[in-house]
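Thread: quick sanity check before group meeting

JM: Hey all, I'm pulling together slides for Thursday and realized we never actually wrote out the predicted structure for the chain we discussed last week. Dropping the sequence here so it's in one place. If anyone has concerns about the input, flag it before I start.
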Amino acid sequence: MPQARVEIVYTGLVQGVGFRMTAHRFAGGLPVTGTVRNLPDGGVELIAEGERTDLDRFLAQLETYFRGNIAGRVSRWGESQGEFNSFDIVA
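JM (edit): ok, ran it. Output follows.
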């Protein structure tokens, strides 16, 4: 199955609530690679690669868990670039 890539910027109360650590934990349970980091404007950027079904499951878990915190999201889907070996929190 082809690998996909999603780049998302989440807005709302997504910093200081464990968003990055939770994303890391959820990604660890799936064959998903990428990064998550805080942005200077208070948002969080998430980049993930994997099979589309795994990415959909990962995002559903994350967005359900933080449904009260996420005010918006801008996402862009594309083909995997194969640049990640794991899923990491970027400082």
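AS: nice. The chain has one domain: 3-83. The chain has a mean pLDDT of 97.
JM: adding both to the slides.
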